[in-house]
Structure formats: C-alpha cells, structure tokens
C-alpha cells in the first residue's frame, strides 16, 4: 500500500458521535464547564477532608465558586496532597462505589492511588474514543495495543475505547518485538499505540528482519508517555509511512485521553468539558493568559471517585485558543517539551531526581556524587545514572565493584519500579556546584 | 612476605589508562609489574611498585580512587604442572584465589605469580605447611633490580 492510498484511508474517517462535544461553541461550553465545576467543588468540599480544610483556610465555601472565573480563588492540589492522603483519603465516594484503583509509585517515593467509579471509567473511555477519533481512527481500523509493562493501565483505557469505537483491537504485550511485527504484518494492522521509542525499536527490528513497514497497511501511530519532538515524529512518519499522533496522559488524573492531536498535528486538543486546563506561573502561581508558557494545571470537572481541583501537573506548555482548521472548539496545549521540576520520563514513568538520590543514599549510607544523564540515540530516550567511585567504595576486586554497581541499580529499580543503567565513573568527573543533577543531552525539543 | 599492591579505578575510555601511568612516570616511580582487569564500563589497574606509599600519595593527590591490598608473590616452577600443584594447595585448604597475574621477569628458572586471596593469612599458613615460602618484597625488588 503506498502513501497515497494510506492518506485516502484517513479521509474516510466517519464522524464519531462521542466527538460532538469537541465542536460545541465556546459560550455554551463555558456554561457546561461552570456547572460541572460547581458540582465538583461541592463534592470535594463535602467528602474530602483535605479539600475541606484547604478551602476553609482561605475562608471559601462551595457557594463562593459560581463559575470558571472563581476557579482562581481555589488552592492548588499537588501530588504530595495525594500521598498525604494515602491510601484512600482522597476518595469522594464510598469505597463500595470504586471499581478500579491504580496504585502509583509516586514521584517523590511516596505512594498514592488513583481511583475510578464505574462512571469515571465510562468518562475515560469516552475521552479515549474522542482521542482516537481525533487522530482519525474509526470503525474498521485494526489497532495494535502495545501499551504494556508500566503502561498496562493506560492500555486498558485504550482497549475499552477502541472496541467501543468498533475498531479491531490486538493487544500484544510489549517486549515481544517479533510477535508485534508478525501481528502487524499478518493481521493488517492500520494503527499502533505505544511509546515513540518502542515504535522506533520495532522499526529497527523490522529492518533487521528485512521487513518494510512502509509497505504495510499501517497508517497511524498513537504515541503516549514520553516527551518527544518534531524530529522524532518525522523519523517515525518516514520509517513507516504513517501519521504519528501525540496523546497527553497524566496517570495522576487519568491515563491517555486528556488531550489528543488532530490530523493537523498542531497542538493537542484538551477535552476541557471534563478536564479544565489553566496555565500558571510555576513560581508565583498566577494564572497566565492563553499563549504564554507555564505549568499546566488541571481540574477534573466530572470525576467522581477522586476529584482533582487545580492539580499541578508539573508539565510545561501553553494554551492555544486560536480556532483549529479541524473545527474543534477545544483549546489546544502545545506539545509538552519540558517539566517544571527537573522531572524526566523513562519508559513512561515520571522520575524525580530526589527518588534516585534517596535510592543511592540507602545503598552505602552516604550520598555519592552522581548525575543523571539523559541522551537521545536514534530518537530513543535513554537515561544513565553516573556515580563517582570514592576511595571508600573502591575495591581492587572487580566483582566487588560490579556488585556495588548492581546494588545501586537494584536500589534505583526498587524505588522507581523500572531499571535505569548505572555507571561507575572516575572520582571528580561529576561537575560540582551544579544546581541540578540532571544533565539533558537530548537534542533541544521544538 | 605480604606485598602491597596498588589498585586504581579506571574508566573504560580512551586515554584513561594513561593517566595513572603518566603520573607515576612523572614521579619517577617504576612499575615492577601490573595487570588490568576490566568489565564493559570500567577497569581496575593493579600495580606492584617498590615505592608504594609514594605511588599512593601521587595517585590520590591527582584525585584517583586508590586502594592498597596485600598480595603474595609466589615462585612457581616453570614446568608443566607447576601452577596446578600450587593451586591444589589452596583448593585443599579451602582458600579462594580472587585473582592472579604473572611478573614480567622470572627468578632463575622460576616464574613469579602475584596472588590475591580471600583469606590471606590462611593462604600463607597453607603454603608454609607445603614448605613454600612466598617471595619477600626485599628479595623480590632486589632481584628484579639486578635483572
């Protein structure tokens, strides 16, 4: 199948009824948002002690929040608030109404959970249907779900939505690269969902096997859980003759489905009838006007089990209010290129340097000089923790050094839930007096 | 009996092995023998030098990670079975050889090997029982000087 036929298949996308809210004019949308905001604030205030106390401190009651303009008065919620309420302190419904709980490792080493009622899951499915439709996926598409491992929970949402959309879903566990490629070839897969780096890994393997992805019916890739840039997008689109779309996810809120790119690939439409976005100055907390870059803050307008009020995502972006040629009235966020807190993503997992620091400290009881080096090789993001060898930990026995390196690696894996390569380096080779421990050697994102 | 060995951490990068060697050269310290053991990313350079305290100071002053370990230098008959017989002694005494390497020079018709044991004193006792005396540092360095 050549590129022209692939593009023609794109144009056949029928209108998806669930997407109708994508096109609601701004004014009625605002009315809906305000109405939902009032309800969510009421529920949070009534049922979640943390919200109640925070609002009380500011002398606020739900009566003060009448529409979106009043949102700014409300205090922010952070991940620490969720950790402090671990395990179920953030629930706004009785436990019996919760049908799913995602345990999260927590980016500062403190766990928290994300809970869903049945209606929350329906909402998530709806947003995923709208996301897929946004990317031009429709009934008749064959979607390969390669969200596995850390993305298992995200994969569930994708699966529910793709089936509801009428697409054929093929769940294939990550890591089984050859099986992925076989399914892609034999089952006429037209769309794949994975991390961008995993797709590039698939492409690399395909080339080794003499398989040309460009010749397959594959026409779309839906990518989640990594910060990637335009160069990587072009690389992916070129290697497989597909369109590559970015989906925004924040597992603290929901999995993928917060925002999605449309066929114009110029920012991600945020499903703001359910998740209201604000951009703030990460230092002062002031709300910034559309177009200005700052930290994305989300308020869940319909979540029942765990409403989030002004949740700080730590992701940096800007809101785009200009109309999109696709006709959606939903504002867009620019692709997320960096984080406001030094955090980085490995295999879809958000990692705070503090987590790595705590793990390293635990090994020898003292904190070695270390740095986290992020690199990009062939579009794949890699991280490496470099630890200086000191006379105290140095040994003439290679096996002892090797064991030490493994111990550091194990401690990190235990803390993060994923492995990060560790390398012992010469003493004094890590620069001193730097204010950050993360060295980003990836090409500047655009 | 016991001989001090200097070990230095070396990253597996071009030019890195040269750093300690150059430092010792500049300090006028001759390397009697050495070995390098490495894994993919780093290695350990092990050195026998006569002025080991001075060597340690020089390397440490340059910011390198240095360790001093005691090893044994043992003469081995340079003939088939010479090494196997020696290793049998340690095996029977339940002593593990962490690593070993050879001296560049020989003592007469005997090769000299450097051994690092997990139980150094037990190794010496086992050798004594077998009637073998490890080479003393003095005779070792003196002999090597004559060569």
pLDDT averaged residue by residue of chain B: 89
Radius of gyration of chain B, taken over Cα atoms and rounded to an integer in Å: 16 Å
The percentage helix of chain B is 25-40%
Beta-strand percent range of chain A:
15-25%
CATH superfamily of the largest domain in chain A: ANL, N-terminal domain
- What profile does the largest beta sheet of chain A have? 9 strands, mixed
Strand order of the largest sheet of chain A: 4-3-5-6-7-8-9-14-13
Question: What coarse outline of chain A follows from CA principal-axis ratios?
Answer: globular
Decide which structural class fits the backbone of chain A: alpha/beta
Q: Find the count of extended strands of chain A (DSSP E, 2+ residues).
A: 21
Q: What class, by secondary structure content of chain B?
A: alpha+beta
State the separation between the terminal residues of chain B, measured CA to CA.
21 Å
User: In CATH terms, what is the fold-level topology of the largest domain in chain A?
Assistant: Rossmann fold
What can you tell me about this protein's structure?
The complex is a heterodimer of chains A (446) and B (147). Chain A is globular, with a radius of gyration of 23 Å. In chain A, 32% of the residues lie in helices and 23% in strands. Chain A has 2 domains: 19-340, Rossmann fold, CATH 3.40.50.12780; 346-445, GMP Synthetase, Chain A, domain 3 (2-Layer Sandwich). The longest helix of chain A is centred in the first third of the chain and has 22 residues, at 26-47. By secondary structure, chain A is α/β, with parallel strands linked by helices. Chain A has a 9-stranded mixed sheet, with helices on both faces. With 147 residues, chain B is α+β, with helices and mostly antiparallel strands. Chain B contains 5 helices and 6 strands. Classes of the chains: A alpha/beta (446), B alpha+beta (147). The interface between A and B is medium-sized, with 18 and 24 residues.
């Amino acid at each position: 199948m050549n590129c022209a036929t692939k593009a023609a298949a794109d144009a056949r996308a029928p209108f998806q009824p669930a997407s109708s809210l994508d096109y609601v004019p701004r004014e009625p949308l605002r009315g809906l948002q305000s109405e939902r905001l009032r309800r969510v604030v009421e529920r949070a205030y009534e049922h979640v002690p943390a919200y109640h106390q925070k609002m009380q401190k500011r002398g606020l009651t739900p009566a003060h929040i009448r529409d979106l303009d009043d949102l700014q008065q409300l205090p922010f919620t952070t991940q620490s608030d969720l950790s402090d309420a671990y395990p179920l302190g953030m629930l706004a419904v009785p436990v019996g109404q919760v049908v799913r709980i995602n345990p999260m490792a927590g980016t500062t080493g403190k766990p928290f959970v994300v809970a869903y009622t049945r209606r929350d899951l329906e909402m998530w499915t709806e947003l995923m249907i709208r996301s897929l439709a946004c990317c031009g996926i429709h009934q008749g598409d064959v979607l390969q779900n390669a969200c596995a491992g850390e993305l298992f929970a995200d994969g569930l949402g994708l699966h529910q939505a793709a089936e509801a959309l009428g697409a054929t879903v093929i769940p294939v566990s990550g890591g089984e690269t050859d099986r992925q490629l076989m399914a892609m070839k034999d089952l006429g897969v037209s769309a794949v969902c994975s991390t961008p780096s995993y797709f590039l890994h698939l492409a690399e393997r395909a080339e080794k096997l003499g398989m040309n992805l460009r010749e397959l019916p594959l026409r779309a890739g839906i990518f989640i859980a990594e910060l990637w840039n335009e160069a990587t997008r072009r690389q992916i689109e070129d290697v497989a003759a597909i369109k590559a779309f970015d989906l925004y996810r924040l597992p603290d809120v929901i999995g993928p489905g917060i925002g999605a790119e449309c066929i114009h690939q110029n920012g991600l439409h945020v499903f703001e009838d359910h998740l209201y976005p604000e951009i703030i100055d990460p230092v002062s907390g002031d709300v910034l006007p559309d177009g200005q870059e700052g930290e994305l803050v989300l308020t869940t307008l319909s979540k029942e089990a765990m409403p989030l009020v002004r949740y700080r995502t730590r992701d940096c972006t800007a809101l785009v209010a200009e109309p999109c040629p696709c006709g959606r009235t939903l504002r867009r966020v620019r692709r997320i290129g960096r984080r406001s807190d030094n955090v980085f993503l490995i295999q879809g997992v958000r990692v705070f340097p503090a987590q790595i620091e705590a793990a390293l400290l635990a090994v020898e009881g003292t904190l070695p000089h270390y740095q986290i080096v992020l690199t990009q090789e062939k579009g794949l993001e890699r991280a490496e923790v470099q630890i200086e060898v000191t006379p105290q930990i140095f040994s003439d026995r290679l096996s002892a050094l090797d064991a030490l390196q493994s111990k550091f690696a194990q401690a990190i894996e235990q803390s993060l839930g994923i492995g990060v390569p560790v390398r012992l380096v010469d003493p004094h080779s890590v620069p001193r007096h730097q204010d950050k421990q993360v060295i980003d050697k990836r090409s500047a994102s655009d | 009996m016991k001989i001090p060995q200097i070990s230095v951490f070396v990253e597996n990068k071009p030019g890195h092995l040269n750093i300690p060697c150059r430092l010792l050269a500049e300090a006028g310290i001759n390397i009697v023998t050495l070995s390098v053991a490495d894994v993919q990313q780093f290695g350990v350079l092990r050195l026998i030098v006569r002025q080991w305290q001075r060597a340690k100071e020089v390397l440490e002053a340059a910011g390198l990670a240095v360790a001093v370990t005691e090893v044994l230098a043992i003469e081995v008959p340079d003939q088939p079975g010479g090494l196997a017989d020696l290793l049998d002694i340690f095996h029977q005494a339940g002593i593990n050889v962490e690593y070993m390497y050879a001296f560049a020079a020989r003592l007469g018709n005997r090769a000299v090997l450097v051994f690092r044991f997990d139980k150094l004193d037990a190794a010496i006792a086992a050798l004594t029982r077998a009637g073998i005396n490890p080479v003393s540092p003095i005779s070792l360095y003196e002999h090597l000087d004559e060569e």
